[in-house]
Amino acid sequence: IILTGRGDDGYICLKEMSDNNARIIIQSEESSFCFGMPGGAIKNGVNGKNVDLKDIVSEIVKYSEED
């Protein structure tokens, strides 16, 4: 899960995880105070699901129910 924040260093490990089929949740631009971290992840090829902040918990629950 990558949330609002400045910079874009968070994408480095997320890209590797994404390339290995990890489930990635990226906070949506609309619900981010600062879209640096989430935007950097998207810009650098991290495959993830964009989710509004208010919906992240339910997304985690959905993932846990799938396994």
Structure, explained:
Strands 1-2 form a two-stranded parallel sheet. Helix 1 packs across helix 2 (36-43). It has helices spanning 11-19, 36-43, 56-66, and strands at 25-27, 49-51. Strand 1, helix 2 and strand 2 (49-51) form a beta-alpha-beta unit. The mean pLDDT is 91. It contains three helices and two strands; from the N terminus they run αβαβα. The chain is mostly helical and 67 residues long.
Could you give the count of β-strands?
A: 2
Oligomer: single chain
Name the overall outline.
flat
Strand content: 5-15%
Largest sheet: 2 strands, parallel
Q: Residue-averaged pLDDT, rounded?
A: 91
Q: What is the H/E order?
A: HEHEH
- The Cα radius of gyration reads 11 Å
Roughly what percent helix? 40-55%
Strand order in the largest sheet: 1-2
Describe this protein with a few key phrases.
67 residues; mainly alpha; two-stranded parallel sheet; flat
